[in-house]
Amino acid sequence: MSEVIKNSPMMEQWFDCKKEGKDALLLFRLGDFYEAFHEDAHLISKELSITLTKRQGVPMCGIPFHASDAYIDRLITKGYKVAIAEQMGDPKESKGLVHREIVKIVSPGTLIDSALLLDKTNNFFASICQIGKTFGLAFLDLTTGECRVTDLEEKKHLLDELFRLKPKELLISKKLQKDHASLFSELAEEFSFLINVQEDSYFDYQFSHDLLLSHFQIFSLDSFGLKDKPACVQACGGLIFYLQDERHLTLSHIQKIETENLSSYLSIDHTCIKNLEILESLSGHKHTLLELLDKTKTPMGGRLIRNWLRHPLLSVEEIQKRQKAIAELMSHSSSTLKTHLEQVRDLERITMKIVSGYATPKDLGSLRSSLETLPSIQKETSSFSSPLLHEIFLGLKDLSLAQELLQKSLVDQPPFRLSDERIFKSGYNQELDELSHISENSKTWMANYQNQLRESAQIKTLKVGFTRAFGYYIEVSKGQAGKIPDFFQRRQTLVNAERFVTEELKNFEHTILTAEEKIRALENHLFQNLKETLATYANDLHSSAKAIASIDTLLSLATVATQHSYSCPVVDSTDLLYIEKGRHPIIESFGNMGQFIPNDTDLNSSDKRLFLITGPNMAGKSTYIRQVALITIMAQIGSFVPAASAHIGIVDKIFSRIGASDDLSRGQSTFMVEMTETAHILHNATERSLVILDEIGRGTSTYDGIAIAWAVAEFLLTKKTKTLFATHYWELTELEKKFPGALNYNVAVQENPEGIVFLRKIVKGGTDKSYGIHVARLAGLPQMVLQKATEILHSLEKRKSRPKKETCIEEELPLFYYQKSQQISEPWEEIKKEIQSLDVEKTTPIMALQKLFELQQKISNAL
Question: Which of 147, 324, 406, 608 is 20 to 30 Å from the Cα of 676, by its Cα?
Fold first, then answer.
């Protein structure tokens, strides 16, 4: 019978913590190190490239406590969760093994104080529940205390919102994971996140309801707008319980729930956000609308302007309030205000740390410097008269008492850790001053005592020293040891010296060491009291932080408007979308401004519903339609716009279908992706929407493509949706003759013997040329290929130029089908006759094309 190896008490403790930590790597505090054991040690050793050792056959590795943050960040970056088990008592006072337990589990969504946190980006942890067809979405940023919920009726809307928020972690039920596996797969293709899956019962409504009432100390959730929103209640309750129970987090700084109604915002789906490069670029460069508009000086302002871009407004009143505030800031000398804002640190995250107990002395130093500049910001904003700036001014609270407390208590340069250096000023606490005096004068006392002993013993080489191992000592060489007085007590013998101690030195040692221990204990006590006092100002700190964020964001938009000569658009409830001399904001700012050509736009929902824009590649069709969408978005966040003037009737949704990409992981070709996105647009666009389309139907045969593009345009015209339709299918220019509201425009091109010159100007009228060969020449295709292409083009153009009366539908067939049809014998002669009998002049293009496709299918079957 094999011998059972019994674990030591410490390892039993480790196993208990490991069970609680579940799927996290466990860092177990042992003195000045965090140790990992067994499989965790193997994995951490490999991932962090640190030495793996063994003790009593158990694999282990360790990281120093004082440098643990950097190591933990590296593990989080690699996608791991890390459980931290701390010593819960003082080893000096504990009898036997000191107790340890997990105090927190660190993961991407629960970072509090980490180099991985980006100042101007929220760090969301989201939770999703579903009741019937309604999704409840709760998302929480632990670093700022934001907790929001929203309900969504469609999976597509949920997907769009998750793309906008890009949470670092998700909490879902097993059923949701099973029912919507494709949704999470699609999310994972765009950004990285961790999924935490719990039993369905974890999101019980009654439990979640009661938990939220208890946490927020309220009698009804109606005050948060959660009446008749059970999916939101379950998502939010489940998330808070999970973070408290599973992650061991203190959530006292989460003080309210904000209910978001997405119907209050301009809807921009994630495809459109990506295509327009609003938050991130498609090509990897940093040139985005966010980068252009974000001139904020504070982290809070940076996060707010990002949120404004994610959610442009539908309220004309709120947009106009922002416009008036920006106009007033543009007329105000803002250099001093910018300077004051630069002195403000991240008040939202510092307040969170204070309330939840994570604040360091350095954090309080940052708070002090922020509060010191707050009165100057209040003075600067007190004279503003626009309604929004006045509201913001009222949000700046009087925090002079907190400021005075910090100025009185903290040293000028507080250290990062409490144990690093002294943090309190002289005069703040009398007992601390007395203890500090003893400690700080120890070197003087030792020097005086050393001189005294040298004179009395007549030993000039005698010295008084200190080591951590042996404490204070008197050292003389062995040759002088015979001269020592009788009251010296031997402490240690070295190779060439003897060390002694006296009662007086022992008493001094006790006094000094006791003073140091008392200083550490007293400083810790005073620091905790200071944080508790500052926590009472949390509401005023939050209010001031939000006010500063709003000032910063509006000032940023004012700065950009001034730098780039933007104009204030008229925004109202009409159906107009008029832009005079509009410019693409990103290209104008980051490209060569001297070469940018402004263009006009005049759309509405009646007689100018659809612009059909033709012209060659590289001429600027795509730039033009994008700039109209970007100007609309800028107008609806309240910003001034890059145009001589603009009149923007509120747009409820913006859709885009631009570019082509396969989605082979889900078995979708380029054309399938294009058709799926187009279908979404057609089903959801309204009379108040703006649709920009680039090259619809290019992923299939010419005839299929033309037919689909025509039908899409016709459908949007019927819905009265404002549409910019860029295409190479010049055949679609016939729409202008057949449908009121369809207008032809083209990108002007200047032809000369050397080639073509793109004028970048959108002008009235269609074109019957695509200049594809000219563009191919610019791209560097071999001359032989260009020459052959030109010959084929001329041949096709000759066929096309035959008299109209000779034109029949058979000539519109691909050459392959036409030649084969000539060879078909009985019983296929009937098909051939049917083809020859059709005359394009006697039917509409849509009817002809439809008949053409039917006949093509018959011929294909015959062949």
Answer: 608
